[in-house]
Design brief:
There is one protein chain. It is built from 18 helices and twelve strands. The protein is α+β, with helices and mostly antiparallel strands and about 500 residues long. It folds into two domains: about 5-280, Butyryl-CoA Dehydrogenase, subunit A, domain 2 (Beta Barrel), CATH 2.40.110; about 285-470, Butyryl-CoA Dehydrogenase, subunit A, domain 3, CATH 1.20.140. It has a six-stranded mixed beta sheet with strand order 2-1-10-11-7-6, with no helix packed on it. Strand 3 (about 60) and strand 4 (about 65) form a beta hairpin. Helix 1 (about 5-10) crosses helix 2 (about 35-50), helix 5 crosses helix 6 and helix 11 (about 320-345) packs antiparallel against helix 12.
């Protein structure tokens, strides 16, 4: 089944509990803080259902047609098809929606290719395969919350106070399922999703068995609440003045659970701390999910490169040799992630058995590249903007006054662009570099996959060090020790 945008919006009116500070939000599809982003998600669903994009965005399996990101590829062509589907979604949102519907779906799909990574008695691979089929057949949007709150990382603090740590854990087991309570972060895009995957991508201590729960729950589950950070849309006056924040704030929420019941068929790992993280690494899950991240980042880099070029055009700086050199450098940086993404496909791995996977090393190289280069790109765009972003009227309402509009048109036009086009361009650049929305993305991209040492730890794990060591050893073995060396050795 392929869901339409209208059907998805209707699915969000399900009685979920959402808070902005102390305000209870009854309907995210109509609340001014969330409604435009909800429309963006609905438009993604409509794009996927467009007959003109049928071959790009969907595939056939088990007698039905499904979103391409549920495809379990068996050849390089399947990986290519997944990439093209991810790119369509990423380009549609200019890379601003990191946790779009294809993100967590890719994690689940990667696990469904290797259910043996969830062995009994603590893993439930059969449940996982059935869950993949469920979200595939219903075109379900799944978000995730897979990191403990920072406050929970010092359990001794809570032991001294004789109170329970805030991290989410199983508090009871019943015949029909488990009951969970506590907090998880960071449920990005959960306000616009149908279900939330709860798990652990950060290693747990061996004795944290009850915290190891990995499961899926609907966003309107009794006892579940989503506490939103300050929405970017709060206080905005128009799409013209805030073109990115207006439509593309995917929102981040803390996940709060109080006695939430999870049926056994939605439990995937229980009472096994190491396994709760290993399921992502020992299956294609972590790779598939982060390939989507790299592709989404590439779309954002393309927008940034275009902005750098247009800003240089608008100020006439593109005629300065040093600026043209800088634009060439930025173009080379954008081309790097382009190449890394295609390398992940061309150097694919025949794994797990019966399927193929993107190249793990190249994927982690791309992920590290992304976390290291976003700030650099933003700084270059900020430099090209200079003070121009501060030389614009406060907002587009200036055109409502005929005399102000006349003066604005006369004094803000340049040989490169008319006044309105200049203002539109610099408002867009500000929303990318200096607004609160821009600040969120600067922080978001820096820690998208965790701290740098975490990403590089994955890279270390996936590197065949024996191969590289052998290059050195074989080279040294290919030439003789000089006579003087032999005398020294003999002595």
């Amino acid at each position: 089944m392929l869901r339409t945008g209208k059907e998805h919006l209707e699915s969000l009116r399900d009685g979920r509990v959402v808070y902005i500070g102390g305000e209870r939000v009854d309907d995210v599809t109509s609340h001014p803080a969330f409604r435009e982003a909800a429309k963006t998600v609905a438009a993604i669903y409509d794009m996927k259902a467009d007959p003109a994009l049928r071959d790009v965005m969907t595939f056939e399996e088990d007698g039905g047609r499904h979103s391409i990101y549920f495809l379990r590829p068996k050849s390089r062509d399947g990986l290519q098809r997944r990439m093209e589907g991810h790119r369509r979604i990423a380009d549609f949102t200019y890379g601003m929606f990191g946790r779009s519907p294809d993100h967590m779906a890719s994690y689940v799909t990667g696990m469904a290719m290797n259910p043996g990574a969830l062995p009994e008695p603590h893993g439930h691979g059969d449940n996982l395969v059935k869950y993949h089929r469920h979200i595939r057949d219903n075109d379900t949007y799944v978000a995730h919350a897979v990191v403990p709150p920072q406050a929970a990382r010092n359990p001794e603090f809570y032991q001294r106070k004789n109170i329970a740590a805030p991290t989410l854990r199983v508090i009871r087991e019943d015949d029909d399922g488990v009951v969970i309570s506590g907090m998880k972060m960071l449920a990005t895009a959960a306000l616009y999703a149908n279900e939330i995957w709860i798990g652990n991508v950060i290693p747990l201590a061996p004795d944290q068995k009850k915290e190891s729960i990995t499961c899926a729950i609907p966003c309107n589950a009794p006892g579940l609440a989503l506490w939103s950070r300050k929405p970017a849309a709060v206080g905005l006056t128009s799409e013209f003045d805030s073109p990115l924040a207006w439509r593309y704030d995917e929102s981040d929420s803390m996940l709060m659970c109080e006695n939430v019941k999870v049926p056994w068929e939605r439990v995937f790992v229980h009472d096994d701390a190491p396994l709760s993280r290993d399921i992502y690494i020992k299956s294609a899950a972590h790779c598939f999910g982060n390939v989507q991240s790299c592709i989404r980042f590439w779309s954002k880099m393309r927008l940034l490169l275009g902005l750098c070029s247009r800003i240089a055009n608008a100020t006439g700086a593109d005629q300065v040799p040093a600026v043209r050199e800088k634009l060439g450098e930025m173009a080379a940086i954008e081309a790097t992630i382009h190449g890394l993404i295609h390398g992940q496909i061309n150097a694919f791995e025949n794994w797990p058995e019966g399927y193929v996977c993107f190249n793990h090393r190249f994927m982690y190289a791309g992920l590290d590249w992304c976390t290291q280069n976003y700030s650099r790109f933003i700084d270059e765009l900020r430099t090209l903007c200079g003070g121009s972003v501060f030389q614009m009227p406060a907002d587009i309402s200036v055109l409502e006054n005929p005399e102000l509009a006349r003066q604005f048109d006369a004094f803000w036009q340049t040989p490169q662009a008319d006044s309105l086009t200049r203002m539109k361009l610099f408002k867009l650049a500000w929303d990318m570099t200096g607004s609160e929305f821009a600040g969120r993305h600067l922080q978001y991209e820096k820690f998208y996959a965790g701290a740098a040492f975490i990403v590089r730890g994955h890279s270390f794990r996936e590197t065949d060090w024996a191969e590289f060591n052998a290059l050195v050893d074989n080279l040294m073995a290919s030439y003789d020790v000089p006579n003087v060396g032999k005398r020294v050795a003999a002595e």
